[in-house]
């Protein structure tokens, strides 16, 4: 089985421009492909995870990845799948985010000589002359076809700005430049990027008379069709400072029963024969499959040692063994705890709730405990002496933080 057939077997492939040609290229290791990453935050998140795994799979099969950093397109923001305008970032914010992305990607992709390339489209987009660009690329884009593109549907209903409308041209131009400068012959991305990707293949065909290809991968969604990778407190990040290895592990350990098999197929490198066996598991064995998923993904992102720590912490807590050294902790500063700290503030400080409004609802619904006792009063204030035993603050059944103090 070639890598293309493996992608098919795992259900990763959504759409492809020329299946026969793409299959031949990736199976023979002749693909020089790119995937774009717009640096809209200072960390990659679960939404990027499938793309990183795809790059790793294809690189292992001898193909050459190009990780394209959106130093230019990130100044606009991709409208795909959105109903509102993205926050416009400064050049300094974008460059900082790119530096963070580079470091994280190196855990997945080998950027040594001849293995993979990291490119920033800001190198050509930021200094692009408007009149030259309109004359060079503009004649090859049909406004009628662009308006029918799926990536603009949601934004058209709420008002699509010209800034966002130009994004497709920028992404198409990226593919053209990568084809010219690096021999890039293929673009991969999420299925919501199909229209933008075809813009690039068409621009190459019209300007150069050459064939380039595109393939989209299945979006990571839950059984309701919503994108995975979000929690009540926000995105699930790959940066351990933003989402701890324990919380990352717990996110995957708690996925819905109906989503376990799909996540194992799309995200892990576990052989398909083993996954098909796990498909048969039910009850307690299904929980074992979730633990396999959580450990495998935590190991991929944070390494074996952190995955083992997260696994041990989860087992310790759920077995009733009390606090573990590996459970996430929050250290209160003297200013935060000296006069006492109320439960709503503590939930927000420790990251168990994204806001005091959400924290209030958690308490009112009986979902908060401190040192093993349920908290029912939204005005409950904890005194400094109550933190001396490193108590656990708990939200729901599976979210814990050990509270420390200076």
UniProtKB/TrEMBL annotation:
A molecular-function term among this protein's GO annotations: tyrosine-tRNA ligase activity
Motif position, 'KMSKS' region: 227-231
An annotated GO cellular component: cytosol
Positions of short motif 'HIGH' region: 39-48
Residues holding ATP: 230
The keyword Ligase is assigned to this record: yes
CDD domains named in the record: TyrRS_core
InterPro entries recorded: aa-tRNA-synth_I_CS (IPR001412), aa-tRNA-synth_Ic (IPR002305), Rossmann-like_a/b/a_fold (IPR014729), S4_RNA-bd_sf (IPR036986), SYY-like_C (IPR054608), Tyr-tRNA-ligase (IPR002307), Tyr-tRNA-ligase_bac-type (IPR024088), Tyr-tRNA-ligase_bac_1 (IPR024107)
BP GO terms, sorted: tyrosyl-tRNA aminoacylation
Matches recorded under Pfam families: SYY_C-terminal (PF22421), tRNA-synt_1b (PF00579)
Alphabetically ordered keywords of this record: Aminoacyl-tRNA synthetase, ATP-binding, Cytoplasm, Ligase, Nucleotide-binding, Protein biosynthesis, RNA-binding
Enzyme Commission code: 6.1.1.1
Binding site for L-tyrosine: 34, 167, 171
Localization per record: Cytoplasm
Tyrosine--tRNA ligase SYY-like C-terminal domain location: 325-401
Catalysed conversion reaction: tRNA(Tyr) + L-tyrosine + ATP = L-tyrosyl-tRNA(Tyr) + AMP + diphosphate + H(+)
Subunit structure: Homodimer.
HAMAP family given in the database record: Tyr_tRNA_synth_type1 (MF_02006)
Family listed: Belongs to the class-I aminoacyl-tRNA synthetase family. TyrS type 1 subfamily.
Biological role stated in the UniProt entry: Catalyzes the attachment of tyrosine to tRNA(Tyr) in a two-step reaction: tyrosine is first activated by ATP to form Tyr-AMP and then transferred to the acceptor end of tRNA(Tyr).
Protein name: Tyrosine--tRNA ligase
């Amino acid at each position: 089985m070639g890598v293309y057939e493996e992608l098919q077997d795992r259900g990763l492939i959504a759409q492809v421009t020329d299946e026969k040609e793409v299959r031949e290229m990736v199976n023979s290791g002749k693909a020089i492909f790119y995937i774009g990453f717009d640096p809209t935050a200072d960390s990659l998140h679960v939404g990027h995870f499938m793309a990183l795994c795809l790059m790793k799979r294809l690189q292992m099969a001898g193909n050459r990845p190009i990780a394209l950093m959106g130093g230019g397109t990130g100044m606009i923001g991709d409208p795909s799948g959105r109903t509102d305008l993205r926050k416009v970032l400064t050049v300094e914010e974008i460059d900082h985010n790119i530096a963070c992305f580079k470091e994280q990607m190196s855990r997945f992709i080998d950027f040594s000589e001849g293995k993979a390339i990291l490119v920033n489209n800001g190198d050509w987009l930021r200094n692009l002359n408007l009149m030259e660009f309109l004359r060079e690329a503009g004649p090859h884009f049909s406004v009628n076809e662009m308006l029918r593109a799926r990536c603009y549907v949601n934004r058209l209903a709420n008002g699509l700005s010209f800034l966002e409308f130009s994004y497709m041209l920028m992404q198409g131009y990226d593919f053209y430049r990568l084809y010219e400068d690096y021999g890039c012959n293929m673009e991969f991305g999420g299925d919501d990027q199909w229209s933008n990707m075809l813009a690039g293949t068409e621009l190459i065909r019209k300007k150069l008379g050459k064939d380039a290809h595109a393939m989209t991968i299945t979006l990571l969604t839950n059984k309701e069709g919503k994108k995975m990778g979000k929690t009540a407190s926000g995105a699930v990040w790959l940066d351990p400072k933003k989402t701890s290895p324990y919380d990352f592990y717990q996110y995957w350990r708690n996925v819905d029963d109906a989503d376990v098999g799909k996540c194992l197929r799309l995200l892990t490198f576990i052989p398909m024969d083993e996954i098909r066996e796990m498909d048969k598991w039910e009850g307690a064995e299904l929980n074992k499959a979730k633990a396999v998923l959580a450990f495998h993904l935590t190991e991929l992102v944070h390494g074996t040692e952190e995955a083992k720590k997260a696994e041990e912490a989860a087992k310790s807590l759920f077995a009733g063994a009390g606090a573990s050294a590996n459970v996430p902790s929050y250290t209160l500063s003297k200013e935060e705890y000296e006069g006492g700290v109320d439960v709503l503030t503590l939930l927000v400080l420790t990251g168990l709730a994204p806001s005091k409004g959400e924290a209030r609802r958690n308490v009112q619904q009986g979902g908060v405990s401190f040192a093993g006792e349920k908290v029912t009063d939204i005005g409950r204030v904890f005194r400094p002496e109550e933190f001396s035993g490193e108590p656990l603050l708990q939200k729901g059944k599976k979210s814990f933080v050990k509270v420390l103090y200076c």
